Amino acid sequence: MIPTHHPAPDVLSGHSIGELAWGESIVVRAHLSACRSCAANVARMEALQGQVLASARPSELEHGALARTLARLTEPPTQDLSREPPAPRRAPAWLPEDLADVHVRPRRWLGAGLWIAPIGERRRGARDRTYLLRAPAGSVLPSHSHDGSELLCVLRGAFLDERGRYSAGDFVRFRPNTNHRPKVDADGECICLITTEAPLRMFGLVGRVAQAITDI
Amino acid sequence: MGSHRLRSRERPVRLEASSNEGWSRSARPRPQVQLSRSARRGQAGAKEVERGCLAVRRRMGGERDGDRRGRLSDDCAMGDRRDARSSSLDARQESPTFGSRPADEWNDLIKRVAENRDQAAFSALFLHFAPRLKSYLLQRGLDGPRSEEFAQETLLAVWMKASLFEPGKSAAATWIFTIARNLLVDARRKDIRAHKGAAVLDEDLDAPEQPDGRLEAGERDHHVSSAMGALSPEQRQVVSMSYFHDLPHAQISETLGVPLGTVKSRLRLAAQRLRTLLRVVR
Q: Which residues does chain A have within 8 Å of residue B156's beta carbon, measured at their own beta carbons?
């Protein structure tokens, strides 16, 4: 299916040159894996940056830079040796292959069929949140607002809010201080990849508790 | 394939723009000779010497660029240089040269790194791309030490990811740019996790799911209220102050006259309890 909601040009170019936040670039990547035309645009912008790089005037490196890097080639990887490697799990079909390098943490259940799974490591003091959200068919999510912007890509199913209907592959940017109350289609679950710049402002008791126990 | 064609068509446009800087030269300048000549002039005013040096600097920097630009913009004239590499016109258009080597050669070097773990090939890539990455990153506003660090880290990543390079998909320089870009984006997070090439899932996202069912808003409210009711009065108090009134921990501590650590531990225990309760109550 061809997505109908796409990132604005500034989001695509921001992604291409690496100026988006980490979570934002993950959500854009999810859309790119579903949208050939945006992917082609990004590929073109990347090729331009490749040209800029290729034609850059060389700067002098620190003395011994090559030797130091060569010495590191044969070093065993330092990370994750202390930790037991996690058992490989089969990624569900709706998780884009392009998101091959993300770490999906355990789900936190909010009720029947409703969960969020945070993405990436928890960082002290960070305000941005990136997570998968799964909501059952026909559910209505708590009304909420955003202090910062929210980027979202639908991975499976569809939902409706005050502004329109979004289905698999669609990309949405909610501007700061927009208030919305998404409703999932009646005929199937909806799974979204979401990143927020700042914690959500939940309205109502349910939203507040949900936020408190899920850290979104 | 379609997108690739588009990309290659875009290149000359970009290069036209850079040609405005006047680096294009049919014959390669000899910077040293130029320098000594302007120095020999002796009587020339400081301004003129300065202008001379600037021109030399520009030509030194532009030598490779001019060479490459010439090849791209003047397809026929450069055809002879490229015949050795390729006979198809299409392939020629998609093989611009970077620096003094044709693009194919960078591809080969990356392939040698991937297949033979060839350190000599890696060194050639490093010596070409790391200094350019450093300039590129400096231009992007990174400071000297960070640019140096990222240039080296990028080449290290080239060593590790060489087998993922697809020459048909993007030019070597583009691929290396995307590696640097991804490192930049990752570095904005405090912790950089090594790319493993596979999603790390802490649990199976499709499996044991709770029995599906719609949770009406009223029903959910009820569950949440009863979960709140199951907390101890002390816990309920801190939860209400913190979650519902957005009071900072320090202020809660002050208002209740209990130590900050106690406020935090009560909140933590309350959140744990709520989590458990809401999972059970459904």
A: 69, 72-73
Contact assignment for A54 to B184 by CB distance below 8 Å: no
Interface of B with A in 8-67 (CB under 8 A): 10-11, 14-15, 18, 61, 64-65
pLDDT band (50, 70, 90) for residue B210: very low
Residue indicated by tokens 């941005």? A128
- Binned at pLDDT 50, 70 and 90, residue B221 comes out as low
- Nearest-Cα distance to chain B for A101, in Å, is 5
Instruction: Tokens for B173, please give them.
Output: 């320089």
Candidates A110, A136, A108; CA nearest to A206 is: A110
Whole-angstrom distance, CA of residue B249 vs CA of residue B255: 10
Band the pLDDT of B21: cuts 50, 70, 90. very low
- Whether A119 contacts A132, CB under 8 Å: yes
Tell whether B245 lies on the interface with A, counting CB pairs under 8 A: no
Helix, strand or coil for residue A17?
helix
Nearest CA in chain A to B9: A44
For residue B173, the chain A residue with the least C-alpha distance is: A50
Q: What angle do CA B193, A148, A105 make, to 5 degrees?
A: 30
Report helix, strand or coil for A153.
strand
Question: pLDDT at position A213, please?
Answer: 58
User: Quick check: B52 pLDDT over 70?
Assistant: no
Structure tokens at B124: 């050639």
Q: What chain A residue is nearest to B177 in terms of C-alpha separation?
A: A50
d(CA B103, CA B172): 7
A45: pLDDT strictly greater than 60: yes
Query: Least CB-CB distance to A112: which of B126, B210, B274?
Result: B210
| CB pair distance less than 8 Å for A213 and B61 | no
Considering the entire predicted model, what is its pTM? 0.63
Nearest CB neighbour to A113, from listed B98, B197, B209: B209
Supply A113's token pair.
């069929």
Closest to B177 measured CA to CA, from A55, A54, A61, A28: A54
CB atoms A44 and B7 under 8 Å:
yes
pLDDT one-digit tens code per residue, A58-83: 999 999 999 999 999 887 665 555 55
| Integer angstrom CA distances of residue A74 from A70, A83, B107, B180 | 8, 21, 22, 21
Q: What span, in angstroms and rounded, lies between the C-alpha atoms of B79 and B247? A: 72
Q: Do the chains contact at B14 and A66, CB–CB below 8 Å?
A: no
Task: State the nearest Cα–Cα gap between A169 and chain B, in angstroms.
Answer: 19
**pLDDT value, residue B172:** 94
Taking the C-alpha atoms of residue B171 and residue A47, their distance in angstroms, rounded to an integer, is 7
